[in-house]
Specification:
Elements (H helix, E strand, L loop, with lengths): L5 H53 L1
Length: 59
């Protein structure tokens, strides 16, 4: 029969779950950072598009 050390198995599974939790937290941080960057880029893009339209209209 298989000789399974349930304590070791349980410990490894628990550690894996903690690692997954940490990865989820990191992904959420990255997502928040990307959202912050997008929030800063969007007005710049909008301003540049408006300026381009103004320049094209003046031509």
């Amino acid at each position: 029969m298989n000789n399974i050390d349930y304590d070791t198995l349980t410990h490894k599974i628990h550690n894996s779950l903690l690692e997954i939790k940490d990865l989820r937290w990191s992904l959420n941080q990255i997502s928040t950072t990307l959202d912050d960057i997008r929030d800063k880029i969007d007005p710049i893009e909008k301003g540049l598009r408006q300026k381009l339209e103004e320049i094209e209209e003046e031509r």
